[in-house]
Write a structure and sequence with these properties.
The protein is an alpha+beta fold. 45% of the residues lie in helices and 23% in strands. Strand 3 and strand 4 form a beta hairpin.
């Protein structure tokens, strides 16, 4: 990404609905250039524009950080965890944990189900230990809306 791509990305990060005309005006470029650059950034997967939910405004959402120590196959476990719809992201790290996942759920019961059945239950032979941290307070935590919405809809369908 060159400097213009970075500046466009910064503007879209501030307002994902900013028009091409506004982008062009802010950056002193033509509207077709702004349109072309944004399209290229989106098509290449370098950026995406999605709705996010402010967790401060959604107190019913539980955010948990899960650290896993692996005995083998961290990439397989990472792939499996990444496919759980409530997982915001999962990363393979160096340090205390081999994998750290951030999960957004609407109930302690769902968190327990994910941990015991979907993560540890399916990988018991590859996980030597785990530690879960539940967020009590946060600042500026935005979560992709699709993670929360899927959880809400599933919960309502199961009622």
């Amino acid at each position: 990404m060159d400097d213009l791509d970075l500046r466009i990305t910064k503007l879209l990060g501030q307002d994902g609905r900013m028009s091409y005309r506004e982008i062009a005006r802010h950056l002193n470029i033509s509207e077709p250039t702004a349109r072309h650059r944004v399209k290229r950034l989106l098509d290449s997967g370098k950026i995406s524009i999605k709705a996010q939910i402010n967790i401060d405004e959604s107190p019913e959402v539980i955010i948990a950080y899960v650290g896993l120590k692996q005995t083998a196959h961290p990439q397989e476990t990472l792939d499996m965890i990444s496919n759980i719809k409530e997982v915001i992201y999962a990363v393979n790290t160096i340090g205390r944990y081999d994998i750290i996942a951030v999960i957004a759920v609407r109930s302690r019961e769902r968190l327990a189900d994910i941990l015991t059945n979907e993560i540890i239950g399916k990988n018991r032979q590859n996980i030597s230990s785990s530690e879960t941290h539940v967020v009590l307070y946060n600042r500026n935590l935005l979560v992709p809306a699709e993670n929360i919405i899927n959880s809400i809809l599933d919960e309502r369908n199961n009622e």
